[in-house]
Amino acid sequence: DQQVKQNSPSLSVQEGRISILNCDYTNSMFDYFLWYKKYPAEGPTFLISISSIKDKNEDGRFTVFLNKSAKHLSLHIVPSQPGDSAVYFCAASSGNTGKLIFGQGTTLQVKP
Amino acid sequence: DAGITQSPRHKVTETGTPVTLRCHQTENHRYMYWYRQDPGHGLRLIHYSYGVKDTDKGEVSDGYSVSRSKTEDFLLTLESATSSQTSVYFCAISASPASEADTQYFGPGTRLTVL
Asked: What is the pLDDT of residue B98?
């Protein structure tokens, strides 16, 4: 049973436009959410996170929105750049376990 | 970048043989994790450690064991490798459980092929 789902396997956007990556979750006990970015043949790198007590967190071009009632989070990248082309994973955790549950990933391609 | 190395980086082995993957960190972080990445599944937690000799199971722990005798090293062992364990394995570390104060940092990965 997939507790964290990224239903779009891939997304293609034009350079300079907005990229919106979506993630849904089923476990209402999740209280912390993260986005990781992964390039081929490398480990995932942390991008941005949000606590369940917030509905938005911004870091430069990256903004994460959390809608707890819908159990949905999204990552906005504005403006998108070709270097943003990568696989993006959302992840969630609950309590102080440190265990992360990951979604399947979305491959973003930003075209010049 | 967090000081995490994984060895070997690539390995091909045969079904039924034991395999040990090593994760080494230089950050003195308390928490260490082993994940596997497979198409359509994202990353799934195999085992994790919250201190020396303190380990616990993750989502997909069957067929795997771990050991942590020193803060800096976390070993993942496949007692008898099967083709279903062909995957890319990532180690991660964190100073504390995932929270706004901290997050997990990942190593470069080990690609394991079981023939």
From this structure: 60
